[in-house]
Amino acid sequence: MPSLISYIRDVFGKLDENHFEVLKVIERNLTRYEIVPREVIYDESGLGERAEKLLKKLNEYKLIWAPMGYEKGFCINYYGLDMLALKALVDRNIIASLGRPLGVGKEADVYDALAPDGRRLVAKFFRIGRTSFRKYERHRTSLLTAPSYLAASIKSAKMEYRALRILHPARVRVPKPVARNRHVVVTEFFQGIELAIAQSLSKPLEILGEIFRNATMAWEAGVVHSDLSAYNILITPEEEILIIDWPQWVPPSHPMAREYLKRDLSNLIKFFRRRWHIGEIPREYLDLVGKICGESLFNAIKRP
User: Fold this and answer.
1) How far is CA 142 from the centre of its chain?
2) Which residues are catalytic?
3) 60-87 burial, b if ≥16 CB within 10 A, otherwise e?
4) 295 phi, psi to nearest 5 deg
5) What is the pLDDT at residue 298?
6) What DSSP state is assigned to residue 237?
7) Intra-chain end-to-end CA distance of the chain, in Å
8) How many CB atoms lie within 10 A of CB 287?
9) CA 223/CA 242 separation, integer angstroms
10) DSSP 3-state assignment of 241?
11) 153 closest CA partner among 108, 202, 218
12) Kind and range of the H or E element at 219?
């Protein structure tokens, strides 16, 4: 299938307000209907049978689909949801254009973007469902439940945006949030490479200490990442850290919060020892999280 950028270039400018109204009707009725009947679309759009021509075009543009046949009704797909989110962000003067992809992952696509005043932004489009949804549900059972891929993506974006709005004012090293609509989170521009693929670090032990400090600050602000790893910690050109991918966060009151934090930090310690051959962890680093995770963390990671 074509890229999102290709779709925007080819399709977005062809859509008028009536196309978007039909998309909105299908979107909001998916909680009531597995497949939204055309009669419902006719009625709620206020367009009556005039909506038929619009449905044909939206189907032609691959923004909706008819899983049980054209006569039964329609569902919106990711491209349709993309168009609705982008329309809302454009109308709010958040985004003026999208640029090149910055990263494609299992659960999200990330794009360079521009604000109307020319500022660079990052737009993250959640794409839950690239892997098995059943596998996704098993992995996220206690963290995120949703009836469909689209609903899961919207909820993921909502969770991530909420976390960033808590953490950035608390000076945790995260991207600065700008806006969210549906399954899209917009932040100020950031750059860096995943810690997992960094080829060199001048002071790996100090970077590990910075991770511990930020994990502690996040806890104090009321957020536990719960899936922290070398793949969602970025290293900037200045060798500062930036922690990304927060949709699965839990509050410290969650019954597993301490276990998640202890597991994540223990795994990061193992990574640093394997990759950067660090030795004993300074007591000052352990003290940062000692009151949260207890002596069991000390025993697990203080020595090689």
Assistant:
1) 18
2) 227
3) ebebbeeeeeeeebbbbebbbbbbbbbb
4) -65, -20
5) 55
6) T
7) 48
8) 12
9) 15
10) strand
11) 108
12) helix 204-221
Query: How far is Cα of residue 303 from the mean position of the Cα atoms in its chain?
Result: 35
Domain co-membership, 238 together with 254: yes
Instruction: Specify whether the CB–CB gap between 102 and 112 falls below 8 A.
Output: yes
129 and 34 in one domain?
no
- For the entire predicted model, the pTM comes to 0.91
Q: Which helix (H) or strand (E) holds 73?
A: none
Based on the fold, state whether residues 170 and 261 are members of the same structural domain: no
Can you give the residue range of the structural domain that contains 258? 193-301
Q: Rounded CA gap, 200 and 39, in Å?
A: 61
Residues 19 and 100 in one domain: no
For the chain, what is the domain count?
3
Q: Residue type at 18?
A: N
For residue 287, which of 296, 298, 278, 303 has the smallest C-alpha distance? 298
In a domain, 87, yes or no: no
Specify if 234 maps to a domain.
yes
The enclosing domain of 260 has a CATH number of: 1.10.510.10
pLDDT, one tens digit per residue, over 211-251 is 999 999 999 999 999 999 999 999 999 999 999 999 999 99
Domain boundary among 158, 188, 218: 188
Could you say which of 80, 102, 137 is where a domain stops? 80
User: Does residue 297 contact residue 274 with C-beta atoms inside 8 Å?
Assistant: no
Question: Looking at the structure, do residues 178 and 215 belong to the same domain, yes or no?
Answer: no
Clarify whether residues 176 and 208 are in a common domain. no
Least Cα distance to 234 among 189, 183, 282, 178 occurs for 189
Residues 137, 66, single domain; the answer is no
171: left (phi over 0), alpha (psi -120 to 50) or beta: left
Q: List pLDDT tens digits, range 119-149.
A: 999 999 999 986 534 444 444 443 445 558 8
